[in-house]
Amino acid sequence: MTLPTTKTALGVLAAMACAAAFAQDDRGYKVHQFPSNRIPVIDGKADDWRDFPDAYVVGTDQLRDDSGKGRKVDPKSLDVKVRVAWVAGLNRLYFLYEAWDDHWDFADPGLHNDTFEIVVDGDLSGGPLVDTLHPNPALPWAQRYFAYHGVHAQNYHIFTPADGKDWALLWGPQAWLKKLPYSNIAYAYDFKPGQPGRLTAEFWITPFDYAGAEQARAVETQLTEGKRIGLTWAVIDYDGADESRQKAFWNLSAHRKMYGNSSLGTVFTLMPLDAKHRKPFEARWSFMVTDMARRSVTFRDESVGPVTRWRWDFGDGATSGEQHPVHRYKEAGKYLVVLTVDGPQGSSRLAKLWDVAVE
Q1: Is the C or the N end of the chain the one with fewer CB within 10 Å?
Q2: How far apart (Å, rounded) are the C-alpha atoms in residues 158 and 41?
Q3: What sequence ranges are listed for the domain PKD (predicted)?
Q4: What is the CATH number of domain 279-358?
Q5: Domain boundaries in the chain?
Q6: CATH number attached to the domain at 23-270
Q7: Is the peptide bond between 161 and the residue preceding it cis, with omega within 30 degrees of 0?
Q8: What angle do CA 104, 71, 238 make, to 5 degrees?
């Protein structure tokens, strides 16, 4: 057996260390699921979030000061609570950001503003997302910026609050992401610049797997139950017009450069509905026309709860007792398809009128 040289071994160890350093940090953070009849109203109020689990709240105690000053968060100076949620069927991340600050700084029209900075990487693809960290720095700036910056992961500098300016800096050429139907925000606060007070920012954003300058080519992240996404944030706190008086860069990530490299962020998991919002037994199903020329349709049972019997009525006189049947229609048309399921908890039916159509 040939033993590796010291140089080779060190190279392998260095590569392993590098890979570990750039793996998203999974601390068990969770994204709460709201039922479809309790979608938060974006009005700057916390009323819609009353049922949000306390265990999912990410507070100031989770943040670290990586400005180099080595201080711990003093809740008398800054106290932050962040709640993140989603709704099945909508590719949106909802946020409730609540913060107390002893000095709110938001008079400047530029970047000098108390800020809640978010980096979202919807498909956990990882890697640099800003032009200054492009793997080929020799490329012209415009090429690095328009083809690369914020394309696979997005950085939002959300101004807290935004007074006399747009609500966020979307760091990249995708300014369209800051408008409906891709985002929305509302604030609630009663202080002036330089004063202490409490702020609430309620908003939602849409994560994208690909979001270049050309909106027509953009690809939304598909949010589904159990999906793990890259998401991290930092709170940038100023105390006056002098840039040197920035208190700290309070970071959820262990790495300051999380702002430009989504591999340095944290992982959040999209949770299922709480049991109190779920029916214990319910018929559900979906379908796909797998061969239109042969009028072949594949049906998939997605019922909730223990099922002992499936009864499919395909609307053309044919039936099936399989869980996931495939059916070929003899004639073109629109069909009423019904699935009835039986189980220890009773019986449930779901009919879909004319969704299934073949030519």
Answers
A1: N
A2: 19
A3: 280-359
A4: 2.60.40.10
A5: 23-270, 279-358
A6: 2.60.40.1190
A7: yes
A8: 20
